[in-house]
Amino acid sequence: MSGLGYEQMVKLVKDNNRSKIFSDEFVICLMWKETNFEPGIANGRSTATGLMQLTKGAVDLVNKNSPAGIHFSHNEMTDAAKNIQCGTYYLDICKTKLAGVDKSFGTGAGYSKSICACETALKNDGTHPMVALQMIHR
């Protein structure tokens, strides 16, 4: 499956970001870091799936900690909108109840540093978003 374009991602995130903490730009940068905007991607070494690479455990954690009436299934995580909704709930849970984004995504200290730099660049220069996104992969 080919990746989605930047403008498509902006609209998807704007419509589906459920985070009370993380900006749309942060979410966009995280998805670029994880998948280069490929919604159907799955990690062959884990259960990580979709734009935000959510594992079965992450989806279960969201279901246990999200508002009443909110429920996700791991097999829905290739649906871009549901992945963003679930993933942004997960980001808030990581920030408020767990060890933070760096440890919760299993990549260790500094994981969010390049995402935060990308977020700042996107906010400051919306005319060249791919330049900001490419910062992630340096």
Automatic annotation (TrEMBL):
<protein>
    <recommendedName>
        <fullName>Transglycosylase SLT domain-containing protein</fullName>
    </recommendedName>
</protein>
<dbReference type="Pfam" id="PF01464">
    <property type="entry name" value="SLT"/>
</dbReference>
<dbReference type="InterPro" id="IPR008258">
    <property type="entry name" value="Transglycosylase_SLT_dom_1"/>
</dbReference>
<feature type="domain" description="Transglycosylase SLT">
    <location>
        <begin position="23"/>
        <end position="111"/>
    </location>
</feature>
<dbReference type="InterPro" id="IPR023346">
    <property type="entry name" value="Lysozyme-like_dom_sf"/>
</dbReference>
